[in-house]
Automatic annotation (TrEMBL):
The keyword Ion transport does not apply. Pfam families: HTH_ParB, ParB_N. It comes from Lyngbya confervoides BDU141951. Belongs to the ParB family. The keyword Phosphoprotein does not apply. This is ParB/RepB/Spo0J family partition protein. Residues 25-115 form the ParB-like N-terminal domain. Keywords: Plasmid.
Length: 303
């Protein structure tokens, strides 16, 4: 992992401070383009509808944050929902505050602004934090995840981390402290597992159809078809966490019994074939069967 000098933190607890002394100007909506890298991918349709109606009635009340490009164009840094709503309403001009940012600074500010939203779903929040940490360390998501796991493994095994890793961890801790949402341990143990969820559960969580705790409970169902069925049931019927956990335990117990039954049926079929066949007439094969039965007896006795 790279150990380059980290970027200076951008504090976003009060976005107004970032925009102090910057004039608000009106620019054509078609002069604003979305960035290549977008921190947010899902917008709740009901909330977007409400925002569109608000913009239709009152206009865009909070200016968009943009950075200037060549030819009178701008790149959006923060305010994509407002921009989309303004476009749907048919506004020709929107209020903006323009500030020069490098590519890296623009992404960093966009991530930080996005992470302060109260309606951000846990998947996008987790991905946003990882991207922010990646910028801080000048690395990628996978390297950040590896760093967090290495720090835990070293602590569990009582091993010391080298100087470079310690510096990186300090940078991670500082960034998370500024966000005010996670510690290193809580982010690693409570949020990273989200990214390993089955795709259908992950997408439902991303779209706000399912709470985080319910998603984790459903993911523990071993059978894929049963898991998908419970996922849909939980969404349609708005099952409680207690109901989901109860159903998950029942499904997993049934699955275990089914597997046990299949093994016993297979054993019975093998015994029937041995009795009806001529395999045991061959001394060498009879010895092989006897040896295998001996291994099975040892397994049953726990040896």
């Amino acid at each position: 992992m790279a150990t380059k000098k980290t970027l200076p933190p951008v504090k976003m607890r009060n976005k107004a401070k970032l925009l102090d002394d910057l004039p608000i100007q009106s620019v054509p909506i078609d002069s604003i383009q979305l960035p290549a890298s977008q921190p947010r991918h899902y917008f709740d349709p009901d909330k977007m509808t409400n925002l569109v109606e608000s913009v239709r009635s009152f206009g865009v009340l909070e200016p968009l944050l943009v950075r200037p490009l060549s030819g009178g164009q701008f790149e959006l840094i923060a305010g994509e929902r407002r921009l989309r709503a303004a476009g749907e309403v048919g506004l020709e001009l929107v209020p903006v505050v323009s500030k020069d940012f490098t590519d890296t600074e623009a992404l960093q500010v966009s991530l930080l602004e996005n992470l302060q939203r109260e309606d951000l779903n846990p998947v996008e929040e987790t991905e946003g934090v990882l991207d922010l940490l990646a910028i801080t360390l000048d690395a990628d998501r996978e390297s950040v995840i590896s760093l967090l796991h290495r720090s835990k493994n070293a602590r569990v095994r009582g091993r010391e981390l080298n100087h470079n890793v310690m510096v990186q961890l300090e940078a991670v801790e500082k960034t998370l402290t500024q966000l005010g949402k996670f510690s290193v341990d809580s982010f690693r143990s409570n949020r990273l597992p989200l990214l390993a969820l089955p795709k259908d559960i992950l997408e439902s969580l991303r779209q706000g159809k399912l709470e985080y705790t319910k998603a984790i409970a459903i993911s523990r169902i071993k059978d894929e078809a049963q898991r998908a069925e419970l996922l849909q049931e939980a969404i349609v019927e708005n099952l409680s966490l207690v109901q989901i956990r109860s159903k998950a335990r029942s499904l997993n117990s049934q699955q275990t019994l089914t597997r046990q039954s299949k093994v016993l049926d297979r054993y019975a079929q093998i015994g029937k074939r041995l009795r009806n066949g001529t395999l045991l007439n061959d001394a060498a094969k009879r010895k092989q069967v006897s040896d295998l039965l001996g291994e099975l007896e040892q397994l049953l006795e726990g040896k």
